[in-house]
Amino acid sequence: MQLNDLLKRIPVLEIHGDDSREISELVFDSRKVTENSLYIAMRGTVVDGHSFIASSVEKGATAIVCEEFPEHLNENATYIKVKDSSKTLGHLASNFYGNPSEKLKLIGVTGTNGKTSVSTLLFDVFKNLGYDSALLSTVEIRIGEKIIPATHTTPDVITINKILAQAVEEGCEFAFMEVSSHGIAQNRIEGLHFKIAGFTNLTHDHLDYHKTFDEYLKTKKRFFDQLEDSAVAITNVDDKNGNVMLQNTKATKRSYALKTMADFHGKLLEVDFNGMLLNFNGKEFWTTLTGKFNVYNLLLVFGIASELGFESDEILQAISRLKRVSGRFETFKSDGGIFFIVDYAHTPDALENILDSINDIRTKNERLITVFGCGGDRDHSKRPEMGNIATKKSTLAIITSDNPRTEDPAAIIKEIEAGVEPQNFSKYTSIPDRKEAIKMAIKFAEPKDIVLVAGKGHETYQEINGVKHHFDDKETINELWQLMSK
Q: Where does meso-2,6-diaminopimelate bind (predicted)?
């Protein structure tokens, strides 16, 4: 693509050199520069990409986008000065791949909990409706039946546009995307045109990155502030921050709720471990998904599909054929009568939601044993809160390791234990080795008891001191059960 075509609709402060050069690739990592590529120099928190401009030109970059021209300008390259390289990258990526987000209906879902579930459920609903779509989530990236491994909650903006361009090429009409706070803060959704934006909820998370809850909230809100007036914003008005998301948006405003008046209103009529009977906008249906948090997830799916022009009956029929999302309230019963649940819940709110859902369903004759931990190198303040929630709402809580990363697992456990109230001291034990903790839960459990293993869900690894070791909660439960039941 010619450089001048690539720069269309992009505010440029100054150009030095030939703007008709042919560009073969966009690169923001100087180590990946190739012949005839355009290198975008971005200022990071640790490294300033402007330091690598000269070496990028030497490697073959024929164009440089930067916020400040270097002292020496090489005649073999064209230099483009912009106000913000990070934001410009998104618009360059959109142009380079033919603005794919304008050629399909792109739906973004944000919030603390439920992003992955809602995005994946939307993908599956539209498959049930007969449409090939794209999915960009934490668990996987899909284009129709093709699966691409996911490495971030929100990939970099070049990768996003590349995936969306492939989706357009393969005839997809819709794309469903998980939009993380990190992705918003790092401009990874810049230049994308969203048809619909959905908000799930906002609770305590990622304060290691955003520092304050207010900053976290403002970052999420930015997604809605940037929507065009042709877009639709759907928010959960049962969440106290739901209406905040809509304060400055130009998009059409829609709402969903279980407790208050809303455009899309839901009721939970019956629930057990096999599923739920629900009522959405006056229409009853059954789903194999379970738990109150899933009522909210499905209601947002229903709202988004409705805003895309589908009839209520066909949406609800498609929803009723849904299967559970991997690692989200996944249930299985052992041949010894113990009920196992594996869930990704790794925040205080998510853990409380899953425990409340289980306690709503169980008859109280069964005991609830919870195995959980907290990730290392992440927000410390949620650890005691999760210790309090787990011990308060379980018969027995077994505190263990999650992904300790570079932290000492024993130190993480101590911080979790600090939140346990004195009356619950007898309701927990700590076992740093996750496999041993699961083994203890199985040993303690009797027929009809419920064992919840929380925190890792779909993950198939445990990160310890920078190394990812294979570890799958479901696989470990099955393996231990087989060994221990012999």
A: 378, 402-405, 455, 459
DSSP per-residue letters across 229-254: TTSEEEEETTSTTTTGGGTT--SEEE
Is 455 annotated in a binding site? The answer is: yes
Residue 392 structure tokens: 């308060």
Ranked by mean pLDDT, the top range of 121-135, 136-150, 193-207, 351-365 is: 121-135
166 in a labelled binding site: no
Find out whether 367 is annotated in a ligand binding site: no
Is 154 annotated as contributing to ligand binding? yes
Residue 60 is labelled as binding a ligand:
no
Q: How many CA atoms lie within 13 A of 252 on its CB side?
A: 11
In this prediction, residue 73 carries a pLDDT of: 96
Q: Is the dihedral of CA 11, 15, 21, 22 positive or negative?
A: negative
Q: Is 212 a known ligand-binding residue?
A: no
In the predicted model, what is the mean pLDDT of the chain?
94
Q: Is 116 annotated as a binding residue?
A: yes
Comparing CA positions, the residue from 272, 235, 239 lying closest to residue 253 is 235
Ligand-binding annotation for 186, yes or no, is yes
The backbone region for 307, taken as left when phi is positive above 0, alpha when psi lies in -120 to 50, beta otherwise, is alpha
Q: What would the pLDDT profile of 38-76 be if each residue is shown by its tens digit?
A: 999 999 888 999 999 999 999 999 999 999 999 999 999
Tell which residue, 331, 319, 242, has the closest CA to residue 278. Answer: 319
Distance (Å, whole) CA 365 – CA 337: 14
DSSP state string for 182-220: HHHHTTTTTT---SEEEE----S--HHHHSSHHHHHHHH
- If DSSP codes are grouped into helix, strand and coil, which group holds residue 397? strand
- The reply, when asked if residue 414 is annotated as ligand binding, is no
Q: Is 404 annotated as a binding residue?
A: yes
User: What confidence score (pLDDT) does residue 336 get?
Assistant: 84
pLDDT classification of 210: cutoffs 50, 70, 90: very low
113 is in an annotated binding site: yes
Does 363 appear as a known binding residue?
no
% of the chain residues with pLDDT over 70: 97
17, 4 contact by CB (below 8 A): no
According to the annotation, is 383 in a ligand binding site?
A: no
The residue whose two tokens read 């208050």 is 260
Rounded Cα–Cα distance for residues 167 and 133 (Å): 7
Averaged over 262-283, what is the pLDDT?
A: 96
